[in-house]
Write a structure and sequence with these properties.
With 93 residues, the protein is an alpha+beta fold. It contains 3 helices and 4 strands; from the N terminus they run H-E-H-E-H-E-E.
Length: 93
């Protein structure tokens, strides 16, 4: 999906979508606009597992580099690579 195409069935506003009201517009804008890279901070917090998988598929379809921060094992399982950091000062472990 590129600009102007939207993400039908993934980011649909309304009750029962599994996306908190604040996340829907922010995630929708990021995925709709695309970009040369995406920085996503805990993007799937409060999102049910099947919808998180569909969101990650939509992110991958953008074919842009993605740096995603997460603490949840289910979200980490969706990643291609995982880096662990500890700090402060922040260091890769």
């Amino acid at each position: 999906p590129g600009p102007g195409t939207g993400l039908p069935g993934v980011l649909r506003p309304g009750p029962g979508t599994g996306l908190p009201g604040v996340l829907r517009p922010a995630a929708g804008r990021a995925l709709h606009r695309g970009g040369s890279a995406l920085l996503l901070d805990e993007p799937f917090t409060g999102v049910d597992g099947p919808r998180a998988v569909r969101l990650m598929e939509a992110v991958r379809a953008l074919e842009a580099p993605v740096l995603l921060s997460a603490h949840e094992g289910d979200t980490l399982a969706l990643a291609d690579q995982i880096f662990f950091f500890q700090g402060p000062p922040l260091k890769r472990v």
